[in-house]
Design brief:
single chain, 560 residues, alpha+beta, 3 domains
Length: 560
């Protein structure tokens, strides 16, 4: 499920995946990210900074497959597969029962949430595998201190993988120490010191870069603390209270003490964080709708199967009253309660499946524990009905998900995965010797990273042309073209649009220029109605989405 047709579903690489791929390609060719930084701790992209571990893990696969779906997504699939195995080891460690461990591993392997992220160039399968491995070796290290060394390394690598761990890891560290402090003190001091030093050595560079480098900029951008709607919403709430007291109150009225008491940054942030946090546990997110972003979750299903809701509740009850070590119980409940905290501090984090990915393992464990315990209860009564019923519902749910994922999802999500950009860019590059200028429209998505990735533009040349800004982003060389204004350029490739309709385009295009226009700005389906193409334009190629809907039109001026 994680490797089959990896280059076809999802239907294409979207912008962030191409950003990862081109960074890896640049590292491969020059030892620098595409912004020119030598073996960076955080990668400087066109618009943000990225954690490094997944990008470095992509370098070997990009060397084998180029900037392509296999090159960018294969490491995520591999970590997804490894994650299932490590999860099995972890569950066997905390329960002492191989049957439960195998069942939980099966539930994780079939999980829509885990499958989705194992087949895309996201960092979170890597994060999850490292985190579970770190906890697994920590628990083993409580009996034999030598295992604390790999635990320290795996846990210290998690913030290198994905930014969620930068907050979740300190919470985990505090929980582990508080829960098992007496067990840790019984271990040889030398082993504790070695583990602590290993952790510090691995974690220190990413921590320093996060605090003093560019690593914090991404959080500053998505954080609720920098939400531009906060002050206007507080002001509106205060004005509404004032109008309730005095209907003629106007904007600018001085708020009263009571207005300030009930409507301020503290109350706004508390409400926002609380809503985000609780939304992560909602039935809408977990069982019915999932993440509203089609890149994160197919439409029409939750992050878990609907039937798993029953076993999640049963598993919670069975586990609470089980004979499992009390400290393990405390840690599992900590994991569940703490996992949504990093996401809750971001603007759309309440149902953001990527930022909430660390919530998946304890939920899967409770589902598996519920199934196992219920099965044993029925087994005592020699009732096979449960086994047959569960197997039937499981197979039905998996078959439905497979149909949705392989048949409907590629078309339903084609625009979100930026399908057709590959064909458009590669066609433009192929045709470029025939033109003085190739202009790629920015009317849809910013086209620069799609061009860089799909064309595998020389990183050395890119370093020569573009200069990074210290605050993030790049200073882009620009050239003023008539009717286009000052637009970014890469040699003969330009990125911009004239903001005119199809019937004016031929009048503003430069001579001997190829224009890659989006279907949105053309606003005519020239695939079905080619006769509507103006006579002053020639259509070099029409590029369609997999569904057949138009995506791009490559146009040039008709000078005859």
């Amino acid at each position: 499920m994680r490797l089959w047709q990896l280059d076809r579903v999802s239907v294409s690489l979207f912008g962030d995946e191409l950003d990862v791929g081109y960074h890896a390609y640049s590292i491969l060719k020059t030892g620098r990210d595409y912004s020119g930084n030598f073996l960076p701790i955080h990668f400087q992209s066109l618009a943000e900074w990225r954690t490094p571990l997944y990008l470095y893990s992509v370098v070997p696969t990009v060397a084998l497959f180029g900037v392509s779906p296999w090159g960018v997504k294969l490491p995520a699939a591999i970590f997804g597969i490894l994650g299932v195995w490590v999860f099995y080891l972890f569950i066997r460690q905390i329960t002492g029962k191989q049957g439960i461990a195998l069942l939980c591993a099966l539930v994780l392997a079939l999980s829509p949430w885990h499958v989705q992220y194992s087949r895309a160039g996201f960092e979170v399968t890597q994060l999850l595998t490292l985190y579970i491995a770190g906890i697994y070796f920590f628990l083993r290290g409580l009996k034999n201190g030598k295992w604390l060394f790999p635990s320290a390394v795996f846990l210290a690598l998690t913030p290198w993988a994905y930014s969620t761990a930068k907050l979740f890891l300190p919470l985990t560290f505090a929980a582990l120490v508080l829960i098992w402090r007496r067990d840790l003190l019984k271990l040889p001091r030398k082993q504790l010191i070695i583990a602590a030093l290993c952790f510090a050595i691995v974690a220190a560079p990413i921590a320093f870069s996060t605090v003093f480098g560019g690593g914090a900029q991404r959080f500053n951008y998505i954080s609720i603390f920098s939400d531009p709607t906060m002050s206007p919403e507080i002001g509106f709430a205060r004005l509404r209270d004032a109008k309730m007291r005095n209907p003629v109150a106007q904007v600018g009225i001085t708020p009263t003490f009571v207005d300030r008491l009930f409507h301020n940054k503290a109350t706004w942030l508390t409400t926002f964080v609380g809503q985000n946090y609780l939304r992560a546990f909602s039935t809408e997110f977990l069982f019915t709708q999932g993440d509203p972003n089609p890149r994160h979750s197919p439409n029409g299903i939750g992050e878990l199967y609907k039937f798993e809701a029953v076993f999640l509740v049963l598993g919670l009850a069975y586990f609470l009253f089980s004979k499992v070590d009390k400290k393990i119980k405390i840690f599992v409940f900590f994991w569940i309660l703490a996992a949504p905290i990093p996401a809750a501090l971001t603007r759309d984090g309440g149902n953001h499946a990527t930022r909430l990915f660390l919530l998946l393992p304890p939920l899967i464990f409770l589902v598996g524990y519920g199934v196992w315990s219920t099965y044993n209860s029925f087994l005592i009564r020699k009732c096979s009905l449960f086994v047959y019923s569960y197997s039937f519902v499981l197979i039905l749910s998996v078959v439905f998900f497979q149909h949705l994922y392989w048949i409907h999802y590629p078309w339903d999500s084609e625009r979100w995965w930026h399908a057709a950009f590959e064909t458009a860019v590669k066609t433009a590059v192929f045709e470029s010797p025939n033109y003085d200028k190739v202009i790629v429209s920015n009317a849809g998505e910013p086209a620069m990273i799609f061009f860089l990735g799909w064309s595998q533009f020389s990183p050395q040349r890119f370093h020569e042309l573009y200069q990074p800004r210290g605050t993030g982003g790049l200073d882009l060389p620009r050239e003023t073209l008539p009717n286009f204004g000052a637009i970014s350029k890469l040699d003969k490739y330009y990125f911009g649009s004239p903001n005119v309709d199809l019937y004016t385009l031929g009048q503003v295009l430069p001579d001997k220029a190829l224009y890659v226009a989006t279907a949105k700005e053309v606003n005519v389906n020239l695939i079905q109605e080619p006769e509507r193409l103006p006579k002053d334009l020639i259509m070099v190629k029409a590029v369609a989405y997999p569904s057949g809907e138009p995506a791009f039109f490559l146009l040039t001026k008709n000078t005859k």
